[in-house]
Amino acid sequence: MKLRTILMGAAAVIATAPAAMAERGSDGNVNVIYWQAPSILNPYLSSGTKDIESSSLVIEPLAGFDEKGDLFPRLAEDIPTVENGGVSKDMTSITWKLKKDLKWSDGTPVTSADVAFTYQYCTAPDGGCAQGAHFDGIKSVETPDPQTIVVTFTAPKPNPYLAFVGGQSPILQKAQFADCLGAAAPTCTEQNFHPIGTGPFVVKDFKTGDVLQLEANPNYRDPAKPAFATMTLKGGGDAESAARAVMETGEFDYAWNTQINPDLQAQMTAAGKGHFVNAFGTLVERIEMNQTDPSPDLAEGERSTVKHPHPFLTDPNVRLALSKAIDRQALVDVGYGEAGRPTCSIVPAPAAYASTNTDCIKQDLDGAKKLLDEAGWKDTDGDGIRDKDGKKMHILFQTSTNPVRQDVQALVKGWWNEVGVEVELKNIDASVYFGGDAGSPDTFEKFYADVEMYANNFDGTNPEAYLAGYLCSKIPGPDNQWQGENIPRYCDPEYDKLVAELAKTSDMTQRGDLAKKMNDMVSAVGMDSMALIDRGRLSAASNTLGGVVVNTWDSELWNVQDWTRIK
């Protein structure tokens, strides 16, 4: 099926919201806990899911994705398609129309100039935009009138729904962020911590890494929403304590990302105060293999940069050996149960784009040892650790602080030890690890370790922008304030060519084939990004909280304006 056919029918694919509530703010306060505390409310300066989703309460895109992965309009009047004339027949432009009478939370009108400015903000020279892949291939963003935005592409764009779509690509207010372009972006503390938005809530107070206090937006476009007058989004702690705060003590109404083992899930559910919600999408737990040298012996600004290749992880046979040593099903059994399944793919869904490669699933310790032998890494002194040219194979393995992740680290360390690799474990507070602070040595973007583990996903059902994140130009470094999406520092000119080909391919079968090939190049073959577990979105909701609909294709808080108190 041609993508054009899908575009022509997309106007009918709009999420249906629940009936309007009686009165804005009538249900008092709602308590939400994100044990990975938000550190900034600007997703253009952080790749961390907790920052993107916290921001989504305040700032919004033109359109989003519902729980089925279907597009629906937020600030836009409708979804542009070929059929309704919003997408040009040659696929080189898309025209968005803003809803009438939209207002920012400060009461000023939302106009097309704000949308054009957002593009300027993310593409400004000397800046570090964490969501830059969403804007690749754009030639211009024009504003013929205050309600109209015309995005023109450098070539036909079969999927024009990347820029300004989904929680990763919201609209910023031009008046507020005008002085925050390029290198100035991270210095705008007030703007980044207290953005003026169009969402259901406005920021009342924000203590970074701790608590976000919000109140209902008085200028929200639906006068009956949100039902809650205030929201407290508490950060910190760990996944287990967050889940208990909903499921056992009832202190909170919703706990995000309750990454706990199956036994604890069953114990907590028995308390009768809440229930776990879970759905599979594109969230994949993975181990990134640093292709650059993170050695502290290198000068600051040169560590984990392409100037210095990694001393052994640049060898694909070494990476493949490390993958073969891992029993992915055991990791699922120990840490995830029904909320996980083993995978070799960084794009596990939807089926049209998901690789069918399953070669990594079966553990092969002997095969791992053989590959390391062939790569010249042998235990020459009998101490159990492989060496080559006088250098020991030592790996610093970092991840965020979380009991499940520490269990996974311990298991992986044991298997890697078994094949002769020395492993040092490090865990970092999640608020710091995913914080995006260019000055911190402990962010996952800076990657001052040999390997690191986390989960990642993409908005919507099309992985184009996500796969474009592995372009050579997306590698984090000092020149982009460590905000590039290419965390493992993967760089292959042939892959870059496939990114360009995918961007201009309209045939759905061909798009799927390209995505699967790219997927395998990064994960199943090269193992630069070593997929481990296809994770469900497992969170906890109070039995007194209504309206919760799990969404794996966009922000988990995508329909918070529809949440209610069950009385």
How does this structure look, described?
This protein is α+β, with helices and mostly antiparallel strands. The protein has two domains: 3-236 and 538-565, Periplasmic binding protein-like II (D-Maltodextrin-Binding Protein, domain 2); 280-536, Roll (Dipeptide-binding Protein, domain 3), CATH 3.10.105.10. 24% of the residues lie in helices and 19% in strands. It is built from 15 helices and 22 strands. It has helices at 3-9, 49-55, 112-123, 174-177, 189-193, 239-247, 262-269, 316-324, 328-335, 365-374, 403-418, 430-433, 464-468, 493-504, 508-525, and strands spanning 29-34, 63-65, 71-73, 93-97, 138-145, 148-153, 201-207, 211-216, 230-235, 254-255, 274-277, 280-289, 340-342, 387-388, 391-392, 394-400, 422-428, 451-456, 529-536, 539-542, 545-546, 564-565. The chain has a seven-stranded mixed beta sheet with strand order 7-8-9-1-10-20-11, covered by helices on one side. β14 (387-388) and β15 form a beta hairpin. α8 packs antiparallel against α10 and α14 runs antiparallel to α15. The longest helix is centred in the last third of the chain and has 18 residues, at 508-525. The protein is globular. It starts with a helix and ends with a strand.
